[in-house]
Specification:
This is ROK family protein. This protein is an alpha/beta fold and 306 residues long. It has ten helices and twelve strands. The protein has a five-stranded mixed beta sheet with strand order 3-2-1-4-7, with helices on both faces. Strands 10-9-8-11-12 form a five-stranded mixed beta sheet, with helices on both faces.
């Protein structure tokens, strides 16, 4: 068994996970985002009943495999912290850490809707956009520990100059992204970004859930917004499929709960990829809130295979 923690900016979700994916002794604690000592104390307390059992962590951030330093934007106390070594010393056990979107992809590949697929690209459509890549059952980790971040890098790039008489009123603006760049897909694709895109496209103020509901009911304003949204997401994911050879893309996160949205994204992707296929590529994930814990539990096997 493995002790697993799925750590977000609000709560630490903790459980004991067995090799067959059973989750037991589940509990939650608020995340001390400003106090690294309190952060380590909570994990030490949670682990205490199981001495010498390894702790695996899924975190909304990334650990650089070369330096061991963690970057987690929504947990300020972990900025530039050597978290693995710190927790190993405090908890007196082996600690493995991975990005939560990577753990999501690994979980869906091992236990979920992507089981049996060789190349799996897992997508998170939540407040922001994330992803993880699993090939031959192994999590792929890239430069600086980053892989699968299809939401970042300038994607929406306006012309450097506007020729006289050319109307660019319909061109998507290059919004500033939280990663520091401008024009990332994340600036229009996450839940909050979709709400901003809807306002830009002339819609009334609405939550992402309301926009989806209006779109499904045929409301024209929402339809205009979603046409833009789906065009960009379909293009970005088609590029991902052509690059990785993914044969399935499980989608999680709040927006991933819309079956109509996932079906529409899937249609757009399959229209744009090089190899046409009849079977759905973009599908709803099935593991829900267990995905982070289950993916973290798989890190031992994944680490041994590298």
């Amino acid at each position: 068994m493995i002790l697993c923690a799925d750590i977000g900016g609000s709560f630490i979700d903790f459980a004991v996970v067995s090799p067959d994916g059973r989750v037991a002794h589940r509990q939650a604690e608020p995340t001390p985002i400003h106090d690294i000592r309190a952060f380590a104390d909570i994990l030490t307390k949670l682990c205490a009943p199981w001495p010498d059992v390894a702790l695996h962590i899924a975190i909304a951030g990334v650990e650089n495999p070369e330096t061991g330093v963690v970057h987690a934007a929504n947990i300020p106390c972990l900025a530039n912290a050597p978290l693995t070594s710190l927790l190993q010393e405090r908890t007196q056990r082996k600690v493995l850490i991975a990005n939560d979107a990577d753990c999501f992809a690994l979980a869906e590949a091992r236990f979920g809707v992507a089981r049996g697929h060789k190349n799996v690209f897992g997508v998170i459509l939540g407040t922001g956009v994330g992803g993880g890549l699993v090939i031959d059952g192994r999590l792929v980790r890239g430069l600086g520990g980053v892989t699968g971040e299809w939401g970042h890098g300038p994607f929406i790039i306006p012309p450097p100059a506007t020729p006289p008489g050319l109307d660019l009123s319909g061109v998507i603006p290059s919004f500033r992204c939280g990663c520091g760049q401008t024009g990332c897909l994340d600036t229009i694709a996450g839940a909050r970004a979709l709400e901003r895109l809807h306002l830009w496209a002339g819609g009334s103020a609405a939550t992402s859930r309301e926009i989806l509901t209006q779109w499904e009911s045929g409301e024209p304003e929402a339809g205009r917004t979603m046409d833009i949204y789906l065009a960009y997401l379909g293009s970005a994911l088609a590029l991902v499929v052509n690059t990785t050879g993914a044969t399935i893309i499980p989608v999680g996160g709040g927006l991933g709960g819309s079956a109509a949205l996932i079906a529409a994204i899937d249609r757009g992707v399959r229209q744009k990829i090089l190899v046409q296929c009849d079977a759905p590529l973009v599908v709803q994930a099935v593991l829900g809130r267990d995905a982070g814990l289950l993916g973290a539990a798989c890190l031992e096997c994944e680490s041994e295979r590298r």
